[in-house]
Queue: 4 jobs
Job 1
Amino acid sequence: MRVSVSWLREYVDLPADLPAEDLEQALVDLGIEVDAVTDLRASVTGALVVGEVLEIEELTGFKKPIRFCRVDVGAANGTGEPQEIVCGARNFAVGDRVVVILPGGVLPGGFAIGARKTYGRNSHGMICSAQELGLGDDHAGIIVLPEASAAKPGDDARGVVGLDDVIVELEITPDRGYALSVRGIARELGHALGVPFRDPGRSPAPGATAEPAYPVELRDTVGCDRFAARMVRGCDPAAPTPEWMRRRLTIAGIRTISLPVDITNYVMLELGQPMHAFDAERISGPLVVRRAQAGEKLTTLDGVTRVLAAEDMVICDDTGPISLAAVMGGETSEVVATTTEVLFEAAHWDPVMVGRTARRHKLFSEAAKRWERGVDPALPLVAVERAVRLLTEHGGGTAGEQILDLDHVRPRTPVSIPADLPGRRVGVAYSPERVVALLEQVGCHVTRGAGRLGEDPGDAGVPAIGGADVLSVVPPSWRPDLTDPADLVEEVVRLDGYDRVPSVLPTAPPGRGLTWQQRRHRAVARSLAERGYVEVLAHPFVAGELADLLGLPADDPRRAAVRVANPLSEEEPLLRTTLLGPLLGILKRNIGRGQRDVALYEIGAVFHPRPGVGAPPTMGVDRRPTDAEFAAADAVVPDQPRHAAVVLTGDVDPAGWWGGGRAAGWADAVQAGRAVLAAADIPADRVQVRAAEYAPWHPGRCAELLVDGVVVGHAGELHPAVLAALELPRRSSAMELDLDALPAAPVVTAPTISGFPPALIDVALVLDEGVPAAEVQRALVEGAGELLEDVRLFDVYASEQLGAGRRSLAYKLTFRAADRTLTVEEAVAARDAAVARAAELFGATLRGA
């Protein structure tokens, strides 16, 4: 919203010497975001004066028409002699008064003006257009001052063209639609500065007459609860829009079209009431305001033929829809260059309907922007009267005596609020008198009482304290956002000053800190991040064909997915049952954007439908659900266990001048699973890793992770068919683990640190290559007994000497006793027991034995 301060001064008595900084701060203090405050006088420096064209010489022989002009600029040039200026514009003649910038001046954008030779003549200055002065986009011709202008040659032109003004550019939040008007901003400034405000929305306007201005049938009083209209006959179709109106519209960013249309836009900016002007001679028969019929078509003013939906509101005549109500008019009834009979319409439309219509048709007009934020239903007659007066004043014609006003607006519902509620919520001692005064300043009608709150829906269950006054507040018609006590509290605080609210940190309630599940989730995330994985947050929505792309068997429970009733995209209507689908999609996107070495992780919920549940119960919003209704609704909610998953591809260790790198593989995915379990405080002796076959992993390179014998996750290399279907690199690996399936971490006793030296013994066992190394390690632990402190696999070896299908696994065993130094015999005996157990279970033999 861009508006000039001179326009605001018509309705609020701003101090004459009000600095721009104070103006900006006053609006900011009221919660209105100020994008910029621009002093137009400073936008053009140097001598900008009024000039009178004395002579025009047409220069020929050039690619475009050029004119050499002699312009009287009075004494502004220091000599009093006519100024010689070369100009290419054609829209002025001898005797016209124009705007001239003399050498040494600087136009907006830093464009310096000097004296130079051009087109064979010396040019001293420039005759300016509106675009060159930053007043608009019109560059077709220069500014020609009206004949009625009292400006004389040599006078400063800034005040003549509006460059003596200050422009305020505001960003209006959706809840403050009333501020999208001069009326609303002027009211706010009146509050902020404590100066008188004259409300143009309360201007006297004649009411409805027995005979309507035009026959109108209002069929839907929900979509349109008020419709007003009045006729102007015999207006001059060639009457120009006054310069002051054009200037204000241009500053607001609205293109001028014709006098009747410009008046509707001007009234919209001034009052906040969008309007429409019909050419009455192009309307066929009575008007009907109704919902559109699905499939009806309307060609709007932008020349686009639109297919209407049943929710859209339209204004129709005998030919069908002629206007998409509250959004944009139609071509068949628009005001044209020959229009002499103008029917002004001002109505009040349902904000929800307008917002949906605008989005459905992608028509975000200035009118729709105001309607969906809320417009004062008391304005239609005032707006019609204002528009009629402007048209008859500047375009001639006669205002019709008949006035139409179909009024079905319901009165506002009072909101009950304890007088002490603002103080309790904010921490500032507002007296009841102060609360009442501030609410009345907003425009509310306040009635004071005493005792407890009644059953009014506006009570919101907020009791009065100690028999405090209870205020019954009727919000003003222009504030549809004031619907409950919290809104009124905000208004009290806003008008009294946010700066009065103390900056005090609230006292933290007593508690036990994070739960053990929260601590576990944070530890898992930190562990994966420290290992080089990057966290991502994927949308939980997936496509129906994802299960096929992942190669899930027909009976896999992960195929049963919950369908979202109102999905963001029909292409992804299901909730994920595994983290891998969205995570692999993010991996593909990163690879497509040039990343080659990628390691990602996510911790999030998956969704499994509960078997045998029906449809959720239907509940209204007029009351709190009963316990039975809540239980029935909760029974339909899907199970949502939290999973952790990683995907990785490319190199784990990059190659370079220091040597070859190492590609990521299935072992890294398995190790990520181990890291998650370790971060979850699951002891290593309770964790088991063994080979498995589970989609979407490669059947020969997939491991399942078990805790206490229960499978909690899978890891390994993804199946080649899955990688091909998803267009991912070969050897890409992944891990997914159910965090909610993990048992609570046991109470860990502090380890006993022995001060005695360890005994280090290496053993290399030869056995079949199909035996998992983790199973061999488990056998060594079982056999070695309590003297074994640590065991670690440090080498895997295969050769022809060992035989086909055989390999050597080398482990480093650490033995230590807590109370003595082990003898060689004790350490060797423990080693032999460990090897014997491996031999018993897997037929292992010591290499070289």
Job 2
Amino acid sequence: MKLGMGVRGGLLAALIMLATPFAATLAVGLASSPASAQTVDSIQVEGNRRVEASTIRSYFKPGVGGKLDQGRLDDGLKGLIETGLFQDVKINTAGGRVVVTVIENPVIGRVVFEGNKKIKDEQLTGEIQSKPRGTLSRPMVQSDAQRISDIYHHAGRYDVSVVPEIIEQPNNRVDLIFTITEGNKTGINSIEFVGNTTYSAYRLKDVIKTRESNLLSFLGGNDVYDPDRIEADRDLIRRYYLKHGFADVQVVAALTEYDPQRKGFLVTYKIEEGQQYRVGSVNFQSSIPALDGNVLARFSRVNVGSLYNAEALEKSVEEMQIEASRRGFAFAVVKPRGDRDFQTHTVSIVFAIDEGPRTYIERINVRGNTRTRDYVIRREFDIAEGDAYNRALVDRAERRLKNLDFFKSVKIATEPGSSSDRVILNVELEEKSTGDFSVSGGYSTTDGPLAEVSVSERNLLGRGLFGKVSVTYGEYARGLTVSFVEPYLLDYRVALGLDAYYREQLPNTYISYETKTIGFSPRIGLQLREDLSMQLRYSIYQQQVSLPSYLDNCNNNPNNGLPFNPSPAFANTAAGQSLIQSLIPGGVDPSGTGLWCYSDGEASLPVRKELAAGSTITSAVGYTFDYNTLDNNKNPTDGLLIDWKQDFAGVGGDVIYLKSALDVKYYTPLVADIVSIIHLQGGVMTQVGNNAIRMLDQFQEGPNLVRGFAPNGIGPRDINPYGTQDALGGTQYWGASLEFQMPFWFLPKEVGLKGAVYADAGWLGDYKGPTDWATTGEVNLPGCIPPTNNGSANPAAPGTCLGLQYDPGNVVRTSVGVGLIWQSPFGPLRFDYAIPITKGKYDVVQQFKFGGGTSF
């Protein structure tokens, strides 16, 4: 027992002896730990110049009892480093105190860009974070260099290098210099499609925005590599297939590969087309008792038997949901459901109308509009704060804002409101320049060289107004036009347009007279549907005709003032002698001016009538209906365009008539990228009462009706052999054309060349203008009777009125031809060569025609 207790006592003593040093060390450590004894106020700050010591101490947050432990010191250290104000931060203990030693980052004096020619300093300055008078942060500098590189990448320059350089200056200041080597543009060398069996690569290249590089790429920008645009093109391809019946289509990938040897990218789109579907059935099911789904059927754009069209389906849902809201069902939601039949390749579509969540719009926040007034944006919404939330109306507002073309980007997002039944709409905008200054130039075989300078603003004063002033000057045409449009008249979605203009049409190869027109025209435009619009207009203009001096004299009359050159057989008759004496007493012209002279090339009687009438005022009201389902307004391949318009002149003014015109174009794609175009047109002028129709108001036609003929080259014509043989026009016309446009498959798509073959037929006639001397207000010759043999080439034939001799031109003109169409960087150009098959005796042929121009 004593031995055991002795052993235990010895062990205990040994343990106490071993533990004593550790206890002493622990006690010393605790006594010297700053966290256990120091407070924020006792922290000593060293090395700071600009940053206040109190600011540095504020990053250290005390714990319980106001003490700082080691963890809180570490948090303070991290916070100071993250400010970016310091190159280095250290925490030490000295004499039982916490010492924070900092080395401040220098201040940036200047930020300079060197070597940048393609992107301006202002753009780069706005994109980087390092700013003059800011603190230099090396990580931030590296981030800025990368950001500059990204900007050049989006501009298609992947060879760019950006080297930042820091130059020290006195007083802890530095200059920051970014040296940029821009390199050449990195273009798209080739665009390939894999898996496309229905549509050729040629057709799909029309769908996407990206283009392959070619010799004229420097005039555009869509041939440079932009990953965002490549991704957007994937969606365009998918939507194109969905629009044409391919409900299962997938654009699996857009692969890009850089070819260092060719210094460009190879882009490959992988497509899985699937089957093409048609609509098998369309049904409407409503779970809302008071709303019959069939009443929304007329708003459906989906028809049984037609190709499945996802775009038409989306528009149907939108219009049906809006109609349900108009009927008082503000929370109704229309959801389409499509059941595919893989055997028959049809889709059964069901529009399910259900009651959606009862959610209201608490607030609409508009952000990013630095110039555009707030109300200009809000008026594009058909809903307001406090209304029921309707996603279809929100999507429509977003589309309208994009169509304004005031903004680079438009995005409407939702966030929860103050309660579960409230949402907040955030409209995020990025504005862009809306002013345009353009110089346009062109040349045509009709008008010769022509130039136009115009200044326009789409968002005038930030109020959404449109204004434009343009000046035109050419060899045969000159003018000035001032236009103004208020798109929301009296806060309604009705556009009011005002146009004032002055135009001169000078004599040229196709007309002998000059016209000057000054006018004013207000108009009102209404968008009835997305594919249907209407315009109401009023026009009042003054028109004056003048002639060159050599067409308005009788000084060179070799017939001693006679208005004709009588044949000897007629002059020697009693009737001839009597007529000569009645015209010129004594056989001479006492005034020396002569009468109505044809012998030296005078203008036609209808022209002389307008010349004698002086200025003529026309006051007319009219309207136009446009129906447009074209897939592309600039380069259509599918769809229908119908234009119907009527104008009634006689609301005051000097002339009265009713003019009607119809123009129809139907495009449809055929095999191998060939597009057929059927063009039908026609017009009628109706005489009101006994009021004669002026020659200048009648239809004048040429190659726009039947190619292969000159402007004003067909229809009734003055055929006096001593006159200018002016075209007289007609009160009726019709035309029909069939054209096939096809690509040149052996040329790259980017060249933009297409060929065309066509056949035209048309007719212009029923001239109803003045035909004799009496109607001109001049001399009514004795014995003159209305002509019974129009077309006579001898105005002095006995028994014939010495008035207008004209060919009525009752012939159907036909022609065939070929054309070359170039969608060039200089604008659209077209060359046509047509051969008339049938024509009138006095028609003017012009087999070659060229026209086009551009803006820059």
Job 3
Amino acid sequence: MRNLRLWLFLLAAPVVAMAQGPKGTDPIPFDPNVKTGKLKNGLTYYIRKNDKPEDKVDLRLVINAGSILENDDQQGLAHFMEHMCFNGTKRFPKNALIDYLQSIGVKFGQHLNAYTGFDETVYFLPIPSDDKEKLEKGFQIIEDWAFNTVLTPEEIDKERGVVLEEYRLGLGADDRMEKRFMPKMLYKSHYKDRMPIGKKEILENFTYDKLKNFYKDWYRPDLMSVIVVGDIDVAEMEQKIKDHFSSYKNPKNERERKYFDVPNHEQTFVAIESDKEASFSQVQLVYKDYTEPKKMVTINDFNDNLKRGLFSTMLNNRLEELVNSANPPFTYGYSYYGDTWARTKKGYQSFAMASEEKQLDALKVLVEENLRVKKYGFTASELERAKTEYLARMERAYNDRGKTESENFVWSYQSHFLENEPAPGIEWTYKTMQQLLPAIKVEDINGLINTYIKDDNRVVVFTGPEKENLKKPTEQEVLAVLNMSDADITPYKDAEVASGLLRKEVKPGSITKKENNAKLGTTTLTLSNGARVTYKKTDFKNDEVLLSAVSFGGSNLYSNEDYKKVQFANGALAEAGFSGLKLNDINKFMTGKIAYVSPYIGGINEGFSGSSTPKDMEYMFQMLHAYFTDLNYDNEAYESYKQKQSAFFGNLASQPEVYFQQEVFGFLLKDNPRFNGIFPDEKSWAETDYKLAYEKYKERFANAGDFEFFFVGNIDDKAIEDFSAKYIASLPSANTKEKAVDNGYRMLSGSHKKVVNKGTDPKSTVMIRYYGDAPYSPKEDLALQALGEILTIKLTEQLREKESGVYGIGARGSMGKVPYGSYSFSISFPCGPENAEKLTESALKEVQKIVDNGPDEKDLSKFKEAEFLEYKKSIKENKYWLNYLNEAYLNGTNPENILKVEERVTALTAKDVQEVAKKYLTKDKVIAMLMPEQQN
């Protein structure tokens, strides 16, 4: 979340008029569209009216207290307390809270949630706002969380199992390595001893009074904030806050809310950690500040923050160029100035992910790039691009200032309460940036590096896999890289910016037919080359246009031999760039322009996804045209892609959960000659043929007349007609239409049990799958989806709440139509190995109950309410419309069904759900279990 703070700061939208020019000592204003105040007991509140999404409100209870305030015998109880707030309050005993919220369409985990950090505990409650009773209940809930949680011994003991399962989930290579390097990262700090998950022995054995004491000490008005943002009446909400929270008092002998520093250190700490189950090799370099963070209060502070942002943007652009180079030093790398683990400590930080044998090389590149900036600084052209990039993003946010989702505002006000982060809003921010940016010179930025990097108070952390023949870097080698000379470092050379995205003349085609669908609000253009463009104009976002293009065909048309040769090379094709431009050339040209297009080749189809602002829509069309007609062939780009992919995927299977997936699907697809593993290995890369993949790509995109193009967003009719005629109608085409091909391969039939042993931690995963061929039915598809949601509710009630055996569990079902009719239903959950068989049996019993008796009407009602809420929100989102139009085309269904979703959901009955359970969940199934390796 630390990386979100800048944008949270930028996104809160006020209406503030600017004076002639900001003075450096002027304070940063607070958003006047927010009603804020403090009750006599010290509780702070923020209220904002925002109708995106409409008829919904986001309530948030923020406690300025987390695990850092635990006593030694309370480690893990801040987080445990978060759990208990959902397990019984004065007004909502036991599980009545979850039950009620589900009845009004709020899903536990997806919507209703919470988190515990070192310094805060936060509760999320999004609810409908079009019903006064629901609103009142919402305030009762957050009031009860704050002051009226019922901590009965019975419920505490039941929740121990759930919290311990969450603790178990966190075990693994990352946890083991973190425990070893954290004492260096948080040197002599209280933070290193207060990880939010706590200690297992305390979670198992703490006495009830320890939890009650934490609640009493820290859940108090002067450490609380209530945030209300949504489609509401502000005055009414303020009165509700007063009614529900004014009567509570702070403890008479309240404990001091202390803040803890991370002490400075003269030495450089180096942690080189490895683990046999580690998936990735990473490098982290942190230069910690000497003093506590300075708060942003004045325009000067804001300007300093801008400079830091520009610095990071320019340096990360250089690092991205290296990632896109012929011999990339790492899979990705970035640097920034910001928060470390502790609230009271910021620093300059650089990260990289590299192959395990290149960690020292990756560190060297990070250090070199820092030294290059220190010795030569940035160039004026780099700064201008960074400014342009900043303003383009800000302009987009500014243009959509009236369309901002409530959740974005909530995060901003939470940061204001907890850390006094400014929340001036997008209008003030955008106008102030327009005034300040032109005056920032490259000299103002270059000097920052001298305040960032230092010879002390720094930490280097290497984490990666442990292998027999792999030589680990030594601390001396790391220090040698850190202290390297800049004598051989040369200045950065800024390449010339391309003049355009296309190098070939475009000969426009024409529009031969134009049709309107009044019900959907769509327009369909038939072009002279046979391609069809369907677009829908919306006002959901002012600065968004989305693209999806699709054609039947895909890799199912390839022979088995060819498919294996190109499977893992397909992702490299776009890495070569187009029109003779490399990726770095394209990225430079696109500075300040917001548009992207990405091609893909799937099993049954090929196509594109993309997006742009209305202003930059032509660039999106140009990219589309270039990917069709002028994709580069670049073996160096392919080799670069292969190196990065190998570094990323090379050790992924050492992670038990990933190995489990690979083994299970290898078992289920063992009769499929096209199955080549989930991830590429050395053998896969050796068999890969980039040239063949390129030729197949050209074959797949040779006939634009076989494509359907969908656009949704703030679209100008004339612009899209002109661009469609010029850039799409001009594409090559043939008088052929391909169809989706079923190659006949299926997963293993029959009932099976597969046990996979991997990992040293006491962790298991259970996966139960039902699948097979079946004629597609929209009604059954919906019923299977409902069955998944309902069964998730019942499994959570039984396996989590009653048996305390899992932290999370889920079920989901669906049907497919193309290229063949099919059904799929799955149940999955992590648990302790000793409970895997018992919990599997419990899960299957819940399935059988629905098969025998059908679902409870109240559970079906919960599903429906959640669907209605989700639909009400989604039907006003460009992404939802784009996906629906795309899927309707692929499935050959009527796109007007998007207007009948509520009708179909309303018509669904408990009998419908029981029938699909009987039909599909009484057939063959596969039970797969991940179990730890046998220990000697």
Job 4
Amino acid sequence: MPQDQYARVTDPKQSVVAVRHLPSAALLAGFTLSLLAVPVLAQTPGAAAMDWHPRSELPAEVRARLPRFCEGGYLQPPVATGEGSPETGAPVTASALSARYEVDTRLVLRGDVELSQSGMAMTGGEAVFDQVAGQVDITGPMTSRSAGMLLTGEQARYDVNSGFFTIDDASFLFHQSEMRGEAAHIRRPQNHIIEIDQGYLTTCAPDRNDWSLVASEIRLNQAEGFGTATNIRLQVKDVPVFYWPWASFPIDDRRKTGFLYPTFGSSNAGSGFYLSTPYYLNLAPHYDATLNPQYIHGRGLFNEIEGRYLSELGESVLQVGFIDDDSEYEREFPGESGKRWGLDFQTRASFGGGWAGYVDYSAVSDDDYLSDLNQTLDIGSDTHLLRQGGIRYQDEWQFFEAYLSGYQTITDTVADSDIPYDQLPEVNYGAVAPLGPLEVAIDSQYTWFDRDNAGLTGLDRAVGQRTRAVPEVALPLRALWGYSRPSVSVDQTWYDLDDYELGDGSFDRTVPVAEWDSGLYLDREASLFGRSYNQSLEPRLYYAWSDAEEDQDHIPNFDAGLRSFRFDNLFRPNRFVGGDRIGDTNKTVVALTSRFNDMVSGVESARFSVGQVYYHDDRDVSLFGRGAETRSESPYAGEVVLRPTDTFDIRVSGLWDPRGGHTQEGRSVLAYHSPDYRYLVSAGHTYTRGASPDDGFEQMDLGAIFPVTDNISLIGRWVYDSQLDQTVGTLAGFEYNSCCWNFQLVNQSYLTDDEEMDNRIVFQVQLKGLGGSGGTRSTLSDAFPGYEARERRRFGTQNINP
């Protein structure tokens, strides 16, 4: 028998006939491609209903992962397996109640036809293979399964050589995207292309079309991750609500060119209503852009654009905003131009071998741009905009960085003498190396400080160079039960200044420093609330001494500041940051930390830390009056972290003064989420005691997202400032969730720089499988700890196959 023919095997005693395809290269290739890469077929029952299971019928572990608002999920049964693959010529095995082979013409299978190949299984009522035309006709009802895809239909035809097919009266299910639908015809004219004629698609549960897209033709490009449709209408509960002559939409998580959902609101700064309609451009796999035209009543048309570029070295992001004629700004500031703009550029590059580079550059046309117009520029400061670029290198033993840095000051409330200096450049080098039992290290820095000093006098007028080197020798001693690290260093600083009015601008400063840091690790097994923990007790003793000259007020303040006093900063020898002040000190720090680690998971469930500084001498060095003290002991600095469950987190830190019996500073944060993230609750309180009642700071905030039904949740947040005695921020809204779509509507109010409350309304609609907008995402993720994790679970996938 020729190799490209089928063998017919019959047994009069059996009703089942097995047919195995012999290794004909052309014929086998056609069968392999069409059966595996191109699932075909079926109609009754629909494809989605075959694999859909109500929640009550799902395994317990699957139900636990399924969101409460989902009625059920898809479980895909195992797909037929076999030896080989389509590329290597895997055999096709068929069975039927009867088979007839016509030599060199066709093969006919009838009754309970089953065809299988590696990764594919097909059933039908009858199959006829036309060997001359290279086509297989299958009549049904029929089904075809392959990995991630199920098709059903009444009849189908496919080409065994190309793998292209046509199915009539069809239904389909794509398991990964959970997209399902029905159509008069389904075709596969090319690899990864599915065409749906006179059909619809949705990601909702079977027999529940909360939304669907109905079109005369739908084309799904699985390779590119998007679909297009003509004469398309969006239906909600089978009621048409919108019509497009043509539309393009994503079918997976990949980005696709098209309009994002608009945002709108009422803005005090904008004199009324505003509307933005962002448009995303997927230009290439490694770069894209988002155009965001906005109409602001009273100001006009404002445009923002964001471009992102990803190369083998790293990522770059450029954000630009521009308005050609801001009528509101011209009215408020007569004589000023209405052309206003903002720019923010960031890039990160990794050159390999430990080398990296970066640039951060921000600029605006005027001081009021951020408060009036900015919606998307990633600028984190409202007084000084950073311009910095540099390179760095790091390996196991050393670190090097060189950069240029400057600022744009965008407020007139900052005096000229307080405007930050530019670093042109700053170079940092640090290294550490073992030397027998010792450890030697050096930390060094060179900076050229510059700024516009016209009109300034005294030390404020000085500019110039500062060079600093801190060599250190230490004896690190470590054991399982503790550690001890005595060290000595010399902090040497040289200045070479211009416009220095107190004399010669060349001088230096030398300060010897000694430290001794030591601690113990004690642990035991403890039991609390029926759970076993490893409890540690970690006493720590730290001593620091430095012989700094008392009077350093002849040194300009280029970058110095008083270090904030908190638990982590207790173990530092210098109470100042920057390089222009080295504090004199003779102090001992006594601290204690206790941790509770779960014996099973190893997770830290609780941590308690408290410490206090004992000063043996007065502190005389000051930063123009700040930092000099005579008190012999500090307030207690402490922090508490509690994680009683995986869903509950409490953090408290603060300073308590035993002399006055009051709290100097405090910050408390409570965050809770339910295991399924339906509930999010957060509460915070920040307090700082000032020299007078008017100098302090106190704010509290409360926030929650909680469900009122399985599908509806309320959203709220409130921020109150005790010093201003007013609300400074609110969020209020709601969301609706189903397993295939989601809607959020939020009203946000916030205090602007001119101490006026501004308002805006943002909303977000997501149709599962077709993407959605980012209208509320950034707003809510900033307001609620755990919101991003909630989003991933809430609107991830209902396809709960392992």
